[in-house]
Specification:
Structural class: mainly beta
Distance between the termini: 72 Å
Oligomer: single chain
Shape: elongated
Number of helices: 0
Order of helices and strands: EEEEEEEEEEEEEEEEEEEEEEEEEEEEE
Number of strands: 29
Amino acid sequence: MKAQITNQTFDEERALYNIKNTEVLNCKFEGPKDGESVLKECRRFSVENCSFSLRYPLWHAQKFILENSVLDEKTRAPIWYSKNGIINSCEINGIKCLRECKDIEINNCNIASPEFGWRCKNVQINNSQIDAMYFLFESKNVTIDNLNMSGKYSFQYMNNLHIKNSKLDTKDAFWHSKNIVVENSFVKGEYLGWFSNNLTLINCTITGTQPLCYCKNLKLINCEMQNTDLAFEYSDVEADIIGHIDSIKNPKSGTITADSVGEIIKKDAIMKCSGVVNIRSNENYYSKAS
């Protein structure tokens, strides 16, 4: 049977350092001593219905559950170097949450944390809302389902990311990322996907200026593009677009098919561009960029 720590307040440095096989229930981590690292190096433990207002609470934690708890804005860098953790129904407002963590599952959380999720591996995020600048920078093997995300410069330098059923309000997303699939999602963002490799968007709505430039192995399947101008510049692309594209500029290679295009720009290219644009309403029309 696990030990229990209940209904207490802790503010000392490393207050519960290296606890094992323990349930921490209805506790507060706050107070005048302003101690850091209250749950550092803990193993096989759970934290439920607790509140945190101290820095660095869960560092080097292993096999943990954090549930129905609040980590306020004073909880700077709350979870670093931890692995095999589940975070359920929490509110997290500390900057730089989740750094260099592995095998983490996040469910039903509300998170506002700039620089969230840097250099992590094997992360699942479900049914959550996250506001974060530079979200998931340099992370690998991430799956996301039903996320409402806002913040600039998201998903950069990532490898192996699968997003579905989500709303992304972002900018400069997916830059330099590899092996990305986005399905059944709304993606709002200027300069979307530049320098990406193996980015696939399926059944998505995309909006924002100058999307999807300098891409390699770019695929769009059954997508809509709203208010998107100067799209696909210097990209290797296969795209099937429902509806209208405001303008397309110098696609490097591949084929783009849409119902209509406001302008096809074929000038000032600094490399050979042979991409083809097909207008679905006139099967005999095509434009080969020069």
